[in-house]
Amino acid sequence: MLRRYLSNGAKFVNRPKVQWNLGQRLHENRPFLLQPGELTPGITAAEYYQRRAELVRNLPVGSCLIILANQIKFASGAVFYPFQQDNDLFYLTGWNEPDSIMVLEKPSENIEDHELTMFVPPKNEFKEKWEGFRTGVDAVKEFFNADHSYSVDNSMSMVNELAKIIKRNKDIYFDPDSNKNSKINSNILNLIKETNKGTPKKLKSLVADLRKVKSESEIRLMRRAGQISGRSYNIAMAQRFRNERTLHTFLEHKFISGGCDKSAYIPVVATGPNALCIHYTSNDDVMYDDEMVLVDAAGALGGYCSDISRTWPVAGKWPSSAHKDLYEAVLNVQRESLKNCKKALENNMSLHDLHEASVKLTKQELKNLNFSKATEIAEKLYPHYIGHNLGLDVHDVPEVSRFNPLVEGQVITIEPGLYIPDSPEYPAEFRNIGIRIEDDVVLKKDGYINLTVEAVKEIKDIENVMQNGTTTDFEDDVVSPLQG
């Protein structure tokens, strides 16, 4: 039911006038969603400022970093895809509008003296009437702490200003991207060449080193997204669905009504043999009562992703003891892999070390189930990695090597799986079964925190939810998601 009252009793009537018509949500135009001082849900302008300061800390004086925003992408004609910002630019500024340029300079040894210049779409009454409000050249300084700002609509002026910036700096960090504005890409590369700066230095790995370690505010967002998503899974398990598409839609509805902004990625809802495809996203089959369904889906909040996989019986009862035994085998591997997370920092383990340990555990579980040649076939039946970094991207910061030692504050997924093809080389009772169990963990010196703990996975807990439903209160149509 639509909640028309806040917890303090205030009614949603007599909408107050806002002083600023802005291109994205801020406290000034969405006071129920963001707190004063926040640029994006849960993240303050001060934190974005500190991220920029930290980025330039170890760079030489005279460094200049340039990042282009993403553009609106069109499917056909005027039909556009939902906008997705370049996540490095978003991480450093909180700016979530297209067709922009961020420039960061380090003019002195004092990192607090770094300068932010933003080139953004200007206010335009006609375009805003059709496309929605823009924040504009003045408000990007007012709210996003830009030291200088210019319009991207005046191409000659923009190029002249970029030329001045590039000329006065010694080291230029810029990653050309063919998926972004090709004209601006070319202009920047030409300006670098004309000013004899040589080849621009790589930028993404510098930002990735910062992004891989999550702040307390980032962890809070991911924890909340995981909590909402996990509770949504439990509610879904208590239902009975006949179509993959219906379960897909139900989960997305629960993620968003519970407070998430959107799904973090295209969900996988794979029944029976469909689960043998790791990234099955067709989600267009019927669901058979004598099979299990593998779901990989989760919500995102404030740009930060959660990532959950669960597998359960379609009809609420295990189709056979083999299904239950194979599920328990995967769960055993996940349990032990989570235990390894507790000692990962102490033992200087990498993500690769966690994966190798999970392969070894999988081999033993297959032996226990009487799979012949278990050692040889384990990696064929478990073809993906134990996990990946998680953050603004689902597969976050791929520039960070999986062979690097894990560090405190890193958020990773732990997701073992088994996928048994319909082949005579495998025991008949296990064929055409795919199982994955995935949680998100933040690594701490004293262990780890499971950010998605609400989603049940123990056999007795799944059976209880499927038979008796859920008892945890789930608030629908949430106004302030971080207040839950």
Q: Based on Cα principal axes, name the global outline.
A: globular
* Residue runs with pLDDT of under 50 for 5 or more positions: 1-5
Largest beta sheet: what is the strand line-up? 8-7-6-3-9
Oligomer: single chain
Would you give an account of this structure?
With 484 residues, the chain is of the alpha+beta class. The protein is built from 13 helices and 20 strands. β19 (439-444) and β20 form a beta hairpin. The two termini are 17 Å apart.
Task: Furnish the topology, listing elements before pairings.
Blueprint: E1 38-40, E2 43-44, H1 45-56, E3 63-68, E4 74-76, E5 79-80, H2 87-93, E6 101-106, E7 115-120, H3 125-131, H4 136-144, E8 148-151, H5 155-168, E9 171-174, H6 182-194, H7 204-211, H8 216-237, H9 244-257, E10 262-263, E11 268-271, E12 292-296, E13 299-301, E14 304-305, E15 309-313, H10 321-342, H11 351-368, H12 374-381, E16 411-414, E17 417-420, E18 433-436, E19 439-444, E20 447-450, H13 459-468
Parallel strand pairs: 3-9, 7-8
Antiparallel strand pairs: 1-2, 3-6, 4-5, 6-7, 10-13, 11-12, 12-15, 13-14, 16-19, 17-18, 19-20
Helix pairs in contact: 5-6, 8-9, 10-11, 11-12
What's the short version?
With 484 residues, the protein is an alpha+beta fold. 34% of the residues lie in helices and 16% in strands.
